[in-house]
């Protein structure tokens, strides 16, 4: 377990949404938050609002050199106690209709950056015999949804990656938690008609992320009662499951407002 009072906590994609809420929660609990984001201006605004124990650093999670610089900048201040791989994007629409380069970039950010960040911080944590990594996946990694196929694949990949790494960390003193939130009301879900899906505020996910430092559970769904829902993928007959997903999925390719999502998409493509 990691005591957050006086800890150094890193958050990727920390300028907005879940990342910003996580940084705020870390500071509230006595930690110093290091916010990494490619939008340095927005990250700096978030850090300034949190006070002296929050710092903004430019980070492009798809660039290994940038990621190394971010980790080194924090390490120069002291050892990293908790690292949160949060950065992510989501494209929507039928798989065959989407731009292939955009889908590859989605994989690079949602899965590739988790590989990079985890790989960079674990060696020093293992050497110290202390540290906690949180990788933010999604319930979409357990319950696949039409219209966000690549997003589902990337989040499923995070779950599988973490399970394998966790086995390698046994007995090292270093822990790894996978957070799987339901749909969260951030820019990432702008324009999505969520219908019957449970929805969350970023602060609810942030609380679950920071709580994991105290319990270090392997996998945490937010809300907790959704944990058994992934069984539906295995036991519900395919025609019924397909109908249910179309009815309650909300991320189905016919269930979002493209105009409302445009500003988010423009920003996600602006790197």
Automatic annotation (TrEMBL):
This is SDR family oxidoreductase. InterPro entries: KR_dom, NAD(P)-bd_dom_sf, SDR_fam. The lineage of its organism: Bacteria, Bacillati, Actinomycetota, Actinomycetes, Mycobacteriales. CDD domains: SDR_c. Coiled coil: none annotated. Belongs to the short-chain dehydrogenases/reductases (SDR) family. Residues 7-186 form the Ketoreductase domain. Keywords: Oxidoreductase.
């Amino acid at each position: 377990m990691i005591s957050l009072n006086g800890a150094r906590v890193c958050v990727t994609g920390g300028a907005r949404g879940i990342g910003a809420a996580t940084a705020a929660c870390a500071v509230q609990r006595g930690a110093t938050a290091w916010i990494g984001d490619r939008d340095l201006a927005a990250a700096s605004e978030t850090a300034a609002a949190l006070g002296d124990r929050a710092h903004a650093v430019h980070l492009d999670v798809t660039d290994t050199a940038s990621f190394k610089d971010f980790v080194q900048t924090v390490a120069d201040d002291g050892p990293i106690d908790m690292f949160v791989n949060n950065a992510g994007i989501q494209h929507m629409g039928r798989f065959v209709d989407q731009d292939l380069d955009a889908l590859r970039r989605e994989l690079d950010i949602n899965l590739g950056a988790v590989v990079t960040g985890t790989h960079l911080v674990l060696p020093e944590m293992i050497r110290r015999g202390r540290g906690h990594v949180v990788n933010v996946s999604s319930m979409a990694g357990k319950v696949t949804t039409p219209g966000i196929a690549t997003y589902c694949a990337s989040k499923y990949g995070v779950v599988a990656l973490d399970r394998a790494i966790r086995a390698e960390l046994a007995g090292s003193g270093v822990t790894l938690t996978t957070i799987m939130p339901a749909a969260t009301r951030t820019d990432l879900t702008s324009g999505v008609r969520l219908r019957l899906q449970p929805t969350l505020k970023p602060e609810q996910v942030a609380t679950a992320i920071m709580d994991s430092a105290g319990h270090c559970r392997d996998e945490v769904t937010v809300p907790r009662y959704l944990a058994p829902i992934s069984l539906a993928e295995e036991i519900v007959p395919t025609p019924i499951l397909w109908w249910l997903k179309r009815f309650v999925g909300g991320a189905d390719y016919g269930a979002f407002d493209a105009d409302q999502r445009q500003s988010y998409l423009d920003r996600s493509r602006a790197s």
